[in-house]
Amino acid sequence: MMTDSNKSSPMVVVTGADENYSIGLVVTIQSMLMHLGPGRRVVLHVFDGGISPESKKRILDSWTDQRLTTHWHQVDMKDFAHLTTAGHLNHTTYLRLLIPDLLGSEVGKVIYLDSDLLIRRDLGLLWDEDVEPYSVLAGQEVSSPYVDSEIVFAESPEKYSKLGTTAPIANYREIGISPDAKVFNAGVLLINVARWRSERVPEQAYECLQRYREHVLFCDQYALNVVLRDSWKEIDSRWNQNSHFYAYTDCHDSPLDEVTFRDLTDDPWICHFTWIYKPWYSDCVHPHKDEYVACLRTTQWHRHRLQRNPALKRDRRTFRQWVARRKGSIERRLTRLGIIKANEDSIRRAA
Question: Are the CB atoms for 106 and 196 separated by under 8 Å?
Fold first, then answer.
């Protein structure tokens, strides 16, 4: 519950990116500022994993809101060179593990944000959540919600047929994790930094990544789920609606219940563009892409022309092809819920 003290104290937010995600970074924070509640202030720490001086200037020139104070931390990415990567995930995913080291001891909690988000709600409402006695608050991973979804949904196989993976911690038996334990997505986190320090969470994560190297999936998200399996609390799924949600037709072929499915369709508080089809590329056909671009146009990238993602030239199974096969049903569902019209209205307001 929010108190006057909570509201007067600045929120501490951490994010990180390299040059490839500089556009994503600017929109993540710009959209946060656009929806920040009255009386809120933000102290932002940017972990720079290889952003060019030109992009850094454009980013900082974009964030003109006086409620924001920004601290820029240059990071030597060579320190992560020995760690595994996967697909479009590169070594910048590990930047969040630096939080206890790069932030002062006076910082007790932070909100960590990936740099491919569109924030559509006052982030202060998440900040006001009580993180004690947990190490982290996070949203359940919608593409791989349980340690072993085939066991959880053994009597309803349609519930796991469209998952990204059914067993994100494949060696869970060896580690001693229950198959029905929930898995969280690490893109939006409310972190208890004090506990991360006292429990040596980053060090445990590095040890986990080394010890179980052959089983690591989704990089440090795997390690954090292993290390924090008994010390995290689930938040409302609307704080982290990731792109895999749109692989599901309805609640019946998804791992979600009817209410959660409708909430994520009707009003996601944060859209997390987790797939390679990022909204700063023309290839992206995410339902909230237009809203994202409208936000982008309020930054120093206001004249940026969207181009195809060069990585997709190597990938013939594109999101566009997937959506084309389901375009009618998707548009009917979004129109019924008013999302398409809402996006059109947001573009007109931004124009």
Answer: no
pLDDT at 87: 62
**What pLDDT is attached to residue 218?**
81
* β-sheet with 117-119: strand ranges across: 117-119, 270-272, 241-242
Map out the domains of the chain with their CATH numbers: 4-350 (3.90.550.10)
Beta strand 270-272 with 184-192: parallel, antiparallel or unpaired? unpaired
The yes-or-no verdict on residue 351 having pLDDT over 50 is no
CA angle 343, 347, 349 (to 5 degrees): 115
pLDDT at 119 over 80: yes
**Which string of b and e fits 89-100 if b means at least 16 CB within 10 Å?**
bbbbbbbbbbbb
Quickly list H helices, the chain. Answer: 4-8, 22-34, 53-62, 99-102, 124-127, 149-152, 172-175, 193-198, 201-211, 220-227, 258-266, 289-296, 319-336, 339-350
